[in-house]
Amino acid sequence: MEHNLAVGLDIGTTKIVAMIGRKNEYDKVEILGIGKSKSLGVHRGVVNNITQTIQSIQQAVQEAEVSADMKIEDVTVGIAGQHIRSLQHSDYITRPNSETVIDEDDIDRLINQVHKLVMLPGEEIIHVLPQEYKVDGQAEIKEPIGMYGGRLEANFHVVVGQVSSIRNIGRCVQSAGLDLEGITLEPLASANAVLSQEEKEAGVALIDIGGGTTDLAIFRDGIIRHTAVIPFGGNVITEDIKEGCSIIEKQAELLKIKFGSAWPGENKDNEIVSIPGLRGREPKEITLKNLSKIIHARVVEIVEQVYVEIKNYGHEEQKKKLIAGIVLTGGGSQLKHLKQLVEYITGMDTRIGYPNEHLAGDSDEDVTSPLYATAVGLVLDGLKRLDRKSIEEKEVEIHENSESEVNEAPVKERRSFLDKLTERVKDFLDNAE
């Protein structure tokens, strides 16, 4: 595979998407190929049938390879699912020598200490995100490196997940004949694809409504403050339509996409859709008002659960206010009148998020659909990893070539915990029989 290419693999509950992208000369991302397949074997974001998931991954990858006319080797994969939860935690270290300035190693020591937190059986810490630091009791420090102090403490946003679920995803990717280049939290990937830097500074909640789960990521002052995965998505709406109207799933899905609305007041009483009956039975007549009542009830439930999470973060405190409001993305965000309903329930400004923040201007309309927010985000993440790699390689070369006595070690960028997690999953898979 070429050096400047990255592939995102979004293993969702309803669809699996493989997307190939590269940076153009304007530092924007061009999508070269895209493949998608129906996701069999994933339930609420968690793999529950390895064989079927492998087949779906291969199908999506093949389609992407054909459309881009190239071979895919490494992929960046997203993890989500109902097993992901997050918590707030604060920790501190006492430095042996307060005469020296705080450096990377002190921060690494502090972060490693957070990793010793005791979790539930089978859970592991996926992500440790420092929020703000305190040095010797002086609060609200964004970047403590270079300061003097004896006691360094910080508040952390800690994301926790089940390690077996993550390994299963790694296993599927490997068995599909691909290399695991990186692992990323899906709400973070979608956020990178959809949100602007200004929104992240002002305070914004990204709600990614997928088929099996609804992911939430809250940013404020440019830092991620809260993440949550709610185990409902578009599929439960389809399920309700199926039950409520006594029709089969395929018809329920079509009804939802074509005629569904989250706001029952929009439909007149006399608007009716006729659905062909099963084999020789009478067709069914369904009023659109009833359809949107069913959808409305379920959507309200999902939005209210998300709103509880936004309140848990502390949106109602003046200092934590989310000025940019809410951005909706994911396939479920395409439901008619959803934006109005969310604004009505939460009282927050809302927009639909399209993943065109970093894409080249002439990108296909298909690619910029909210459906593909996570996939685009994973491609961006893969490209970022490539950039980091090439910088590190250059630094090593410079270091080797400089014959003169240089005391400066090459600047090592702090590796995110997800990089370490990726390596651990790789090691585990390599050593497992």
TrEMBL record:
Q: Which InterPro entries match?
A: ATPase_NBD, Cell_div_FtsA, FtsA/MreB, SHS2_FtsA
Query: Could you tell me which residue ranges the SHS2 domain spans?
Result: 6-194
This protein's UniProt keywords = Cell cycle, Cell division, Cell membrane, Membrane
What membrane topology is given?
Peripheral membrane protein
Q: List locations, semicolon-separated.
A: Cell membrane
- One Pfam family name is FtsA
A single BP term in Gene Ontology: cell division
- Record flagged with keyword Membrane: yes
- Subunit (UniProt): Self-interacts. Interacts with FtsZ.
HAMAP family of this UniProt entry?
FtsA
* Family assignment from sequence similarity: Belongs to the FtsA/MreB family.
Functionally, this protein is described as follows:
Cell division protein that is involved in the assembly of the Z ring. May serve as a membrane anchor for the Z ring.
Q: What is this protein called?
A: Cell division protein FtsA
Q: Which organism is it from?
A: Hyunsoonleella aestuarii
Q: Provide the gene name from the record.
A: ftsA
